[in-house]
Task: inverse folding
């Protein structure tokens, strides 16, 4: 097989993909970039309204040879495939070490009403989370813990920021995510759906270990996580059914957002699957 023809760096397709690094263009086109074999693999399998989420794939020759199964799956799904040189892929990616595979995807966020209608048991709510890497990592943690949905409030970072997408390592394609919802509406909607709201805060008056010991965490739960620097404002904490702190048993001053989110989400996941929990499996 000969060397495939490479797309010109000045191609309109390359220009359009490059523009998706900017939020304004992502919002206008309702498209974003997914980078790396794991994210592209998940994008190929994902459907938005019955239509493949991945619509276009850029691949270096080396990456295409290394990930032939991804190229074949994309071709079978009817995805347009462009072979490109390393510089062109790096220019679209705008990262120091691009991974050679870049997918152009349709937006895939879910209406908040659809999430409520599905009667979620475990939800992660990001309120005023501004760091895209943290947002993507919390999304990945929520996916790993078996959460039913993630909600980014209107004051949080763009879900489709390239750093958020990379940090989610494909989890963005695994569970419903709602974006741009005011925190008051998020809380009231979830409470109306029978979900208990727990605000995660280092100064909380409830201790996570104590909550687990009393058996109060087995029901449907939404964790609200705040800004990396200043946490949750008083008005947001006041909306919650309880404000819970993760206990610090050692000498560390605090936990970072993603670590605290993982601890809280896994605590709920375990409680919900235990005896009497909302996800408990009856013996026999």
Result:
């Amino acid at each position: 097989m000969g060397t495939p023809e490479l797309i010109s760096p000045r191609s309109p397709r390359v220009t359009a993909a490059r523009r998706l690094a900017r939020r304004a263009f992502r919002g206008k086109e309702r498209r974003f970039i997914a980078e790396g074999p794991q994210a592209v693999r998940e994008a190929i399998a994902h459907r938005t309204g019955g239509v493949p989420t991945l619509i276009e794939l850029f691949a270096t020759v080396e990456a295409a040879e290394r990930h032939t199964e991804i190229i074949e799956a994309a071709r079978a799904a009817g995805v347009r495939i462009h072979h490109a040189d390393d510089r062109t892929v790096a220019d679209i990616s705008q990262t120091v070490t691009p991974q050679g595979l870049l997918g152009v995807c349709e937006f895939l966020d879910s209406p908040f009403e659809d999430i409520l209608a599905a009667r979620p048991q475990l939800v992660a709510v990001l309120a005023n989370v501004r760091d895209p890497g943290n947002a993507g990592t919390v999304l990945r943690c929520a996916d790993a813990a078996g959460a039913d949905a993630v909600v980014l409030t209107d004051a949080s970072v763009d879900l489709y920021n390239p750093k958020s997408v990379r940090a989610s390592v494909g989890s963005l394609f695994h569970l419903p995510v709602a974006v741009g919802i005011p925190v008051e509406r998020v809380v009231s909607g979830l409470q109306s759906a029978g979900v208990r709201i727990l605000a995660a805060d280092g100064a909380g008056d409830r201790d996570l270990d104590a909550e687990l010991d009393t058996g109060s965490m087995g029901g449907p739960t939404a964790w609200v996580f705040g800004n990396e620097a200043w946490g949750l404002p008083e008005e947001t904490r006041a909306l919650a059914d309880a404000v819970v702190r993760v206990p610090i048993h050692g000498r560390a001053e605090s936990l970072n957002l993603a670590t605290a989110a993982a601890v809280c989400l896994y605590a709920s996941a375990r409680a919900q699957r235990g005896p009497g929990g909302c996800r408990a499996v009856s013996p026999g």
Notes: The chain has two domains: 12-106, 112-273. The chain has 13 helices and 13 strands. The mean pLDDT is 94. The first helix runs from residue 12 to 19.
